[in-house]
Design brief:
Blueprint (H helix, E strand, L loop, with lengths): L4 E6 L3 H12 L12 E3 L5 E6 L4 H7 L4 E5 H7 L4 E5 L5 E8 L14 E4 L2 H10 L5 E4 L15 E6 L3 H5 L2 E10 L1 E5 L5 H10 L1
Parallel strand pairs: 1-3, 1-4, 7-8, 7-9
Antiparallel strand pairs: 2-3, 4-11, 5-11, 6-9, 6-10
């Protein structure tokens, strides 16, 4: 019986739409719908696992999924033993630092000693360390952009695509921490058979 490659994709959102479009463009026909947790390709040895985006790096590291499609920002943030093998060119965004409008902002040194709210503490910490800055990181899981308005933080570090959410919340983007797009990540020790399937896919 032929081995099948297990690919993990986001179960909802922009990454899912881009992932399914990519598979379709590769000529891969998915037999059952995305409302299920698992689907199979009818014309290629590929099974699709629909998972929460933040869980995909762990599943790939553990070998439950052989490969996954995630944002580069997620791959960087989660710091798992996985390898990014191919940027895909969709779901482009950036992880940026923003402050309230009309804030006197001389440059990154503004962040020294400040409180910064983020859902990406590892990425933010790396940026601060690189710039030899010290700040108080407040890790929150959602609605990061309201943190300055409620007195929780002096700045935020969050994903930005169009900037409209920042504008609505009276914030201005000041620094880009990292640029991101969708990419394929893989378990670092795929079997020869599964690597051969992956090579056909990419």
């Amino acid at each position: 019986m032929q081995k099948r490659l297990q690919i993990a994709v986001q179960k909802s959102g922009r990454l899912l739409e881009g992932s399914l479009k990519l598979l379709k463009e590769c000529g891969i026909r998915v037999d059952n719908g995305k409302d299920q947790l698992k689907a199979s390709a009818g014309n290629f040895p590929l099974d699709i696992l629909y998972l929460r985006n933040s869980d995909i790096p762990q599943y790939v590291e553990d070998g439950v999924a052989d490969i996954g499609i995630i944002g580069e920002n997620t791959a960087f943030e989660k710091q798992k033993q996985i390898k990014a093998i191919l940027p895909l060119g969709f779901s482009k965004c950036r992880l940026s630092i923003a402050v309230p409008k009309n804030t006197a902002y001389p440059g990154p040194e503004f962040l020294n000693g400040k409180r910064i709210a983020t859902s990406y503490p590892n990425s933010l910490r790396h940026y601060l360390d690189t710039h030899q800055l010290e700040a108080e990181i407040h890790e929150i899981s959602g609605s990061v952009e309201i943190a300055p308005n409620i007195g929780l933080a002096d700045a935020i570090c969050d994903l930005v695509s169009s900037g409209s959410t920042l504008f609505k919340n009276g914030l201005e983007e000041k620094e880009v921490v990292l640029k991101s797009e969708a990419c394929i990540v893989a378990h670092p020790a795929l079997s020869e058979e599964k690597q051969a399937i992956l090579d056909k896919l990419v």
